[in-house]
Design goal:
Shape: globular
Radius of gyration: 25 Å
Number of helices: 15
Low-confidence stretches: none
Order of helices and strands: EEEHHEEHHHHHEEHEHHEHHEEEHEHEHE
Number of strands: 15
Mean pLDDT: 87
Length: 449
């Protein structure tokens, strides 16, 4: 799987972005450079949120946070957010993410099915329910339909903070769907023919709502069920790493404002929001510190693999020792040691034949960060994935900024990496064609003599 191209016409600071990441380049590592304020972090966040959160109902509020304020001009029925090309199974799959007004969807359905959607139900909820029910009309019974309606209503109530009577709305929707059942096959035909998927509604402001959809072209079997399966698979295979400070961009508008408030706030509440966000976004990793819990879990996994091999073959494996040797090689003149009960770690330094025990603060930020990235990739077995890395060079000596390209090649060579960076050294570790740029450009252009 390879992210081949990203186009963003107009989103926040991103204007007329059109970047290609060539699938045949070796290594598949692409620095994304610009000066401060160019939108590198915004672009990575946009790619990750669209591809990771679009099919999971429990993550759609991150998408809604991203889209807040993304309005549509009065003279246009819809607005493209991003078009992403994915190279998958020797085919180019194009995903067009766009927003439109509820009235536009209702008008299209009316024209194509003769169904007048002037109802007392909420527009966004009606569009979501009709999209899902019409597509599965032939495969689910009445009980299954009611379960889908109830699930949609509960989600709507939870994330909109609406005080609605769930049972009454479920009863009213079920009755209404029976009345309009003859129109649903035409709605299904329209959705299938246009390869459209309902993703979410979102607020443009505190009053107005829009609908967010995507269109997928290029799959071997062009159906909505295959589109959902493709996006689900893509969601599991895209990851993002960033400094802890970047987590706030996934928060709601209300929570993001805490970052810019001068009055006293409860810091525990703020950091609990960050922690909760990280818990929900399992494919997000922050590399600001050594994740000891991740380190311990990785050693425990290696130990358990050795034990399983002993049961299966009669001989213990060497996963545990190999992991320890690899980490010690990364630390150069220092060694990592695991407590006997596997509940902690410590570090030692060999100096003139003497073993000196080190505290975690005796390791540099760069050493801890490099170790954490390695552990994260190895522990999660991240392979054949799209990995977005924001400001990876922070805390690295220029030599290590250059070296990180070779590290990624060695640690997990089958991944595609897109690295948002300010580092000249990192960019120089690859060919100029690998380096992609946003305005204002990082690499200075000198006139030819």
């Amino acid at each position: 799987m390879h992210l081949q191209r990203i186009r963003v016409p107009d989103f926040r600071v991103l204007k007329d972005v059109d970047i290609t990441f060539e699938k045949d380049f070796v290594p598949r590592i692409f620095p994304l450079g610009s000066l401060n304020g160019g939108g590198k972090s915004t672009l990575l966040q946009l790619i990750f949120t669209l591809l990771h959160c679009s099919t999971d109902p429990d993550k759609k509020h991150f998408l809604q946070n991203l889209l807040y304020g993304f309005n549509i001009r009065e003279d246009s029925p819809k607005r493209t957010l991003a078009i992403i090309d994915i190279w998958n199974n020797n085919k180019n799959v194009i995903i067009d993410f766009f927003a439109c007004k509820a009235s536009y969807v209702k008008q299209q359905w009316k024209v194509n099915s003769d169904l007048n959607l002037t109802t007392y139900f909420p527009d966004s909820l009606t569009i979501q329910i009709l999209s899902e029910i019409s597509l599965e009309l032939d495969t689910v019974d009445q009980q299954g339909i009611e379960a889908k309606i109830e699930s949609s209503i509960k989600y709507y109530k939870k994330y909109k903070n609406e005080t609605i009577n769930t049972k009454k709305l479920l009863r009213d929707y079920s009755k209404w769907l029976q009345e309009i059942k003859p129109f649903l096959p035409k709605i299904k035909n329209y959705i299938e023919f246009n390869h459209l998927m309902f993703i979410s509604d979102y607020r443009v402001n505190d009053q107005e709502e829009n609908i967010f959809l995507c269109r997928i072209d290029g799959l071997n079997i062009p159906s909505i069920s295959h589109s959902k399966s493709f996006l689900n698979n893509l969601s599991e295979n895209i990851f993002i790493t960033a400094p802890l400070t970047q987590v706030f961009i996934f928060m709601s508008k209300k929570d993001r404002k805490l970052l810019f408030k001068t009055e006293e706030i409860d810091s525990n509440d703020y950091y609990s929001i960050i922690k909760n966000t990280k818990t929900q976004l399992m494919n997000l990793f922050t590399y600001d510190f050594l994740a000891v819990d991740l380190l311990i879990r990785t050693f425990k996994d290696a130990r358990d693999r050795d034990f399983r091999e002993a049961i299966e073959t009669g001989e213990y494996g060497n996963h545990y020792q190999r992991l320890k040797n690899e980490l010690n090689q990364m630390l150069f003149n220092k060694k990592i040691n695991i407590d006997k009960d596997l509940n902690g770690v410590n570090f030692t330094l060999d100096r003139n034949g003497e073993t000196i025990e080190l505290s975690p603060e005796d390791l540099s930020h760069g050493e801890l960060k490099r170790l954490s990235i390695y552990m994260w990739l190895k522990h999660h077995n991240i392979e054949d994935a799209i990995v977005l890395m924001d400001e990876i060079e922070i805390a690295f000596h220029p030599d290590w900024q250059y070296q990180i390209i070779r590290d990624l090649q060695e640690w997990a060579p089958n991944n595609q990496y897109i690295l948002a960076t300010h580092s000249y050294e990192l960019c120089q570790a690859l060919t100029p064609a690998h380096v992609k740029e946003l305005e204002p450009k990082l690499i200075k252009q000198y006139p030819e003599n």
